[in-house]
Amino acid sequence: MVRRSAKSIFGTLLPALIFASCSPNTQTGAFGLSTTTLTLHGNPLNVEVADTPQSLSTGLMFRSSMPEDHGMLFMLGSAEHASFWMKNTKIPLSIAYIDGKGIVREEHDMEPFDERTTSSSSDDIVYALEVNQGWFQRHHIDPGVKVEGIPR
Fold first, then answer.
1. Contact 152/127 with Cβ under 8 angstroms?
2. Cβ neighbour number for residue 121 with a 10 Å cutoff
3. Does residue 59 contact residue 89 with C-beta atoms inside 8 Å?
4. Rounded to an integer, what is the distance from CA 114 to the centroid of its chain?
5. Is the dihedral of CA 133, 138, 139, 145 positive or negative?
6. Which range of residues forms the domain containing residue 82?
């Protein structure tokens, strides 16, 4: 899902190992990824946490569906310009690019199997959050909203 350089992937590995060993709020989901609950504007969202090179590159590929109040949080590591694509992804998604303070900076809709990149406008993105397409709109989540519960 996310296009990344080797330097960026290795920069994510150490924080991911630290996160996995000390975050009491997490569980393991059906796909073997850690899960946690985020809150956006009072709305709970159950997310799988992509925090390894494998999970960052695979994302939600090959899945046929996702429950309504579920998503995937990508832990990108250090602040960067982020780019995602929908290669091998069957589910229409919306993505929020989030800064290091947990603030939604921008949102985009993405279509299944589209291999064009959806890039962030800014270069201070630390997290990306994918949900079913339209979830942000249905829950009145706009740029500027704080995401609560992001694992550190």
1. no
2. 10
3. yes
4. 18
5. positive
6. 6-148
Q: Domain for residue 33, yes or no?
A: yes
pLDDT digits (tens, 9 = 90+) for 2-57: 555 434 443 444 344 334 434 445 555 556 799 999 999 999 999 999 999 999 99
Structure tokens at 101: 């303070």
Count how many domains the chain has: 1
Half-sphere exposure of 61 (CA within 13 A, CB side): 16
Query: Rounded to a whole number, what is the distance in angstroms from the first to the last CA of the chain?
Result: 22
pLDDT per residue as tens digits for the range 39-54: 999 999 999 999 999 9
The verdict on residue 1 lying in a domain is no
Q: Is residue 140, in this structure, part of any structural domain at all?
A: yes
Taking the model in full, what pTM does it have? 0.82
Residue 120 counted as domain residue: yes
Question: How many Å apart are CA 86 and CA 42, to the nearest integer?
Answer: 28
Residue 13 sits in a domain of what CATH number?
2.60.120.1140
